[in-house]
Amino acid sequence: MALHTFHTPGPVELEVKVPTGDIEVETVDGDESTVEVTGNEKLVEQTTVELVGNRLVVELRSKFGRGITISIGDINIVGSPVRIRARVPHSSRAELSTAAADMELRGRFAALEAKTASGDLSVEGEVEGNADVKTVSGDVRLRSVGGDLRAQTVSGDVTSASVGGDVTAKSVSGDVRIDSKREGRVTVQSVSGDIEVGVTAGTNLDVDAGSVSGDLSSEVALGSDIGNIGGDGPTLVVRGKTVSGDFKVFRAA
Fold first, then answer.
1. What average pLDDT does this structure show over 38-57?
2. How far is residue 99's CA from residue 83's CA, in Å, rounded to a whole number?
3. In whole angstroms, what is the distance from residue 114 CA to residue 250 CA?
4. What is the largest CA-CA distance in the chain?
5. How far apart are CA 111 and CA 131, in angstroms?
6. Which residues contact 139 (CB under 8 A, 6 or more apart)?
């Protein structure tokens, strides 16, 4: 095990690049950041933890190369499992890249960018700004996103309790669900997956959606209905397309 401690009087930009294992990040009070690395002794030694300015970088550098590169449809896996436990100040940014590691975040983050294959992403807390996530064979579960949500998944579901900004999501063999949306724009495309959008009370709704072999349903009056658009409340624009999936708009609790 290796434990690294840094004096960080303000939020940091946390960057984690490991191939497999587990990543846990928690935001805390105080002016200190800690990173604990566990696993195979040789791999722990090859994992560097550096603070440069306000950038806290955690990266596994093996004899096969530095770190990993992950993109949808192009995955390069290097190394074996390591476990990362990071504690950073509230309102830090998180940028996480992994091939086959589960990622669990708790607390309050300024922004989030995550790429994973064969691993789940769970955020129990708040992303104050934008969240940008890409997964292959992994589910994404977010509680609250204050800014925009951009998600791209293959064989994984995307769920978020609430999103303050716009939503742009593409899914193959996975469902997309937003529990509560008040205003802005939602643009979702899904193949072999369902789309569900919850609309808060008092919101004007403008919907244009289609499904090749699925059902379309709405508990909320659509934009073409008389009196729906033009009220005092905000307007939510929803654009969705599904293939072999259902599209549903429902009343948010």
1. 94
2. 13
3. 29
4. 68
5. 6
6. 120, 121, 156, 157, 158, 159, 174
Confidence at residue 62, expressed as pLDDT on a 0 to 100 scale: 63
Nearest partner of 162 among 137, 129, 198, 134, judged by Cα: 198
Token pair recorded at residue 95: 């940028």
In a domain, 211, yes or no: yes
Residue in 83, 98, 77, 76 with CA at minimum distance from that of residue 41: 83
Tally Cβ neighbours within 10 Å of residue 56.
Answer: 24
pTM beyond 0.70: the answer is yes
Residue 205 sits in which domain range?
166-253
Query: 103 with 45, same domain?
Result: yes
Q: Which amino acid is at 204?
A: N
Q: Is residue 148 part of a domain?
A: no
H or E stretch at 78: none
| pLDDT tens figures, 205-232 | 999 988 888 898 988 876 544 344 556 7
Q: What is the pLDDT of residues 49-87, one digit of tens each?
A: 999 999 999 999 865 434 444 444 444 444 457 999 999
